[in-house]
TrEMBL record:
It comes from the Bacteria. Residues 15-324 form the Beta-lactamase-related domain. It comes from Planobispora takensis. InterPro entries: AmpC-like, Beta-lactam-related, Beta-lactam/transpept-like, DUF7586. SUPFAM superfamilies: beta-lactamase/transpeptidase-like. This is Serine hydrolase. GO terms for molecular function: hydrolase activity. Residues 347-431 form the DUF7586 domain. Keywords: Hydrolase.
Length: 451
């Protein structure tokens, strides 16, 4: 898709300028990504002595976690580990050996948020063996699986897991398996020129304080990486679905699935497997926020629309949480994406004969062809369970989502070969409500329907 329209660019620029001025940010770099490419870039302020460009490095903090998580998922896909493995199977001797890899990825393992010792983000790090020796009973703060509790320490353990599985440090694994294949050549674990200087902004005066930067060593997998707007745009495209062969599409989709929510009944934010999730403006977003002393960054992507947004700032605090969702709203207002053109397609006549109404007892459902041999089963009237189904070579269908995700649907034929009923994990769907000719569990009253 071409760059944004001039009117859109003006509105985006105004929002970014307002954020940099009103939040008092030394510098702010922002990009909009559409269909895998930067559609708009804007920047304000000074990253040091010069204005930020698309090649200026900023520290991206906890966005690092998502990259570590991708390596973990690659290890799972290779059969080297299982997400249900307790971490103690791979790193014995921790006080939380029973916590699973999946729970660490989704911050539901109940671990303390921060490691013991001094504030790790502003002090030199320690090797993993020293960190492990400091861990005790207080490492566990909640029953595993009980609740969402963000844990930097948990990703320190996951980084060590990567190192032990790959026989190298976590950063080398991320570079070789993710950054290089995606072309993210300016993403590194320590700053390289040109890079922004990290500052704290005084709360009551317009003065700056430089923030320290250290190698976090054992905690580095929780927030060490530096990147550029161009490279982070490529990462946004990855999260939106352009995996570049780094990860199977189904595995990325698994990372997007909500494992937990972090704001209770509101469900505006949650966490998948190494990815933060958010719902805003009718979109379901995936990505991650990042914060380290002197730096803030966030990337959000909408796989359904193949659009992403990101910002990078060299300030310890200040960027409003609504900045990126406001940019998406501007994009939607000024340049709503046009629906894909509809066109007819060839279909299997036998499958065409199956489409239309089916009944689960008295409840009406519609069976539709989605493309190829895939199907959807949705309630007529909106009340009931809806799922999509993928065709399998044996003539059955596998549920992809909703209540029937992972369940098998099969067509049961009559003795003469004509379609009889659908068997969906013991539920029987018939062409008429409680068809007496079908194998309805419990049978059908022989006197039929009555007043």
């Amino acid at each position: 898709m071409s760059p944004v329209l001039e009117s859109t660019a003006r509105a985006l620029s105004h929002r970014v300028a307002a954020e940099q001025a009103e939040s008092r940010l030394p510098s702010l770099a922002v990009a909009v990504v559409r269909d895998g490419r930067v559609a708009w870039f804007g920047a304000r302020g000074l990253a040091g002595e010069a204005a930020p460009t698309r090649a200026t490095q900023y520290r991206i903090g906890s966005i690092t976690k998502s990259m570590v998580a991708v390596v973990i998922m690659r290890l799972r896909d290779e059969g080297r580990l299982d997400l249900l493995d307790p971490i103690g199977k791979h790193i014995p001797g921790t006080p939380v050996d029973e916590v699973t890899i999946a729970q660490l990825l989704s911050h539901t393992g109940g671990l303390t948020a921060e490691p013991p010792g001094r504030w790790w983000e502003r002090t030199p790090g320690m090797p993993f063996e020293e960190l492990l020796a400091l861990l005790g009973p207080e490492t566990s703060r909640h029953r595993p699986g009980r609740r969402f509790h963000y844990s930097n320490l948990g990703f320190g353990l996951l980084g060590e897991l990567v190192a032990r599985q790959r026989g190298t440090d976590w950063a080398h694994a991320v570079q070789q398996e993710i950054l290089a294949p995606l072309g993210m050549r300016d993403t590194t674990t320590r700053p390289r020129a040109p890079h922004a200087t990290g500052y704290a902004v005084h709360p009551w005066a317009d003065v700056l304080l430089p923030e320290p930067e250290h190698d976090a060593v054992a905690l580095a997998p929780a927030g060490q990486i530096w990147s550029t707007p161009d490279d982070l745009a490529r990462w946004a495209a990855f999260v939106a679905g352009d995996t570049g062969g780094v990860l199977a599409e189904a595995t990325l989709a698994e990372m997007h699935e909500p494992a937990t929510v972090d704001d209770g009944d509101a469900w505006t934010g949650g966490y998948g497997l190494g990815l933060q999730l958010a719902r805003a403006g009718g979109r379901r977003l995936a990505g991650h926020t990042g914060s380290m002393p002197g730096f803030l960054a966030t990337v959000w992507a909408d796989p359904a629309d193949r659009v992403g947004v990101l910002f990078m700032a060299n300030s310890t605090s200040g960027v409003r949480r609504t900045l990126l969702t406001d940019l998406l709203a501007i994009l939607d207002e000024h340049e709503p994406r046009l629906p894909a053109e509809w066109a007819p397609s060839a279909v299997d006549p036998e499958l065409l004969a199956l489409t239309g109404p089916w009944y689960w007892g008295p409840a009406a459902y519609a069976l539709r062809l989605l493309g190829g041999r895939d199907l959807s089963l949705t309630p007529i009237g909106g009340t009931g369970r809806a799922s999509r189904f993928s065709a399998r070579p044996d003539g059955t269908w596998l549920g992809l989502d909703g209540y029937y995700a992972g369940e098998t649907m099969r067509l049961v034929r009559n003795p003469d070969g004509s379609p009889g009923h659908l068997d969906l994990n013991t539920f029987v769907f018939t062409r008429t409500p409680y068809d007496p000719q079908a194998e309805v569990p419990g049978g059908v009253d022989p006197d039929g329907w009555r007043a």
